[in-house]
Amino acid sequence: MKKSLLFTVLLGVAGVVTLSVSFAGPPAPKAAGIESKGYTWNAQDGEKIEAVKLKGNKVNGEEAYEVCGACHLPNGAGRPDGTFPQLAGQHTTVLIKQMADTRAGLRDNPTMYPFAVVLTDPQELADVAAYIESLCIPLDHGKYEGSDAAQQIAKGKGLYEKQCLECHGKNGEGDKAKFYPVIAGQHYNYLLTQMTHIRDGKRRNSNPEMVVAIKPYTDDMLVAISAYQASLKMPGAMCAEKAAKK
Ligand code: HEC
Ligand code: HEC
Question: Chain-centre distance of CA 99, in angstroms?
């Protein structure tokens, strides 16, 4: 049964956007995750792997992305306060995995769930990912704003390089083939929330090795690491000055 749902999303810059989507039934039951026995992180099956293998169509992806833009913004910048992550610059594999995990009830995201399930099939996941990949990386994003930013960034660099670099890379570039996210240039608040959720077992689609790595980190240490990561530049094509002002 298809239900019709009306969403009103308030955006500081874009005013009020009203979205109408049809949505198939209530949110998915919670699939098992990181804390359950036999959980396999990133099992190589299902719509995720189908989508990763398909060639995305940017033009179709742009159309499918329209509904996403209400939260992640049309340019994929998300919100500097971290409520919505920046998507521009993220690896297509990561985008697809996170969408598929949300659809499957493996990553809890009640805000986005009704929109994620509107995507029809693996081809549409591939199309949206291809479109997002084509977006330039916005020049600005949410950073750590305390007066001790320089010290936090220096402390965060040391902590990051000990345990996180081996997967997320020297410059926070992640690894497309391994589904490791880019974390450079993401919004500070979003990074801090995700790391805390991963450490505390709330993000149930996490990589178990990362959970082990991040367990000993205190909240203060995570603040410093987030400050450092947000100070890095996302790899890829940055938007031109002029385009950024529109
Ligand atoms: C109603 C707001 C909303 C809409 C519409 C929405 N999202 Fe999201 N999305 C979110 C939120 C909130 C998060 C972060 C959830 C969290 O904190 O774990 C997110 C996270 C994501 C992530 C994970 C990013 C990462 O770095 O891990 C991807 C990928 C994503 N969204 C893609 C999409 C796509 C594609 C669409 C359109 C089909 C879409 N979203 C529509 C709110 C939304
Ligand atoms: C074994 C590899 C590995 C290690 C080590 C690792 N990570 Fe991760 N990290 C991942 C993967 C994979 C994901 C995405 C997990 C998923 O699919 O949800 C992730 C997700 C994240 C995210 C969320 C990104 C997003 O866009 O949502 C942040 C932030 C992060 N890691 C920071 C860290 C920090 C800080 C450390 C060091 C303490 C660390 N990671 C160590 C593999 C790793």
Answer: 9
pLDDT for res 15: 44
d(CA 25, CA 44): 27
Where residue 164 falls among pLDDT bands split at 50, 70, 90?
A: very high
Phi-psi region of 123 (alpha: psi -120 to 50; beta: other; left: phi over 0): alpha
Report the separation in Å between the CA atom of 195 and the middle of ligand 2, taken as the mean of its atom positions.
8
Contact 179, 42 (CB under 8 A): yes
Instruction: List, for residues 119-158, the tens digit of each pLDDT value.
Output: 999 999 999 999 999 999 999 999 999 999 999 999 999 9
Top mutation candidate among 52, 92, 112, 167 for ligand 2, by most atoms within 8 Å of CB: 167
CA dist 21 to 27, 48, 95, 113, 159, Å? 14, 23, 21, 12, 43
Please give the distance, rounded to the nearest whole angstrom, from the Cα atom of residue 159 to the centre of ligand 1. 28
83 CA: nearest ligand 1 atom: 12
Q: Ligand 2 centre and the CA of 134: distance in Å?
A: 24
pLDDT number for residue 235? 86
Q: Which ligand is nearest to the CA of 211?
A: 2
Mutate to test the pocket of ligand 1, among 72, 131, 193, 194 (most ligand atoms within 8 A of CB): 72
Q: Which residues of 69-91 are buried (b: 16+ CB within 10 A; e: fewer)?
A: bbbbbebbbbbbebebbbbbbbb
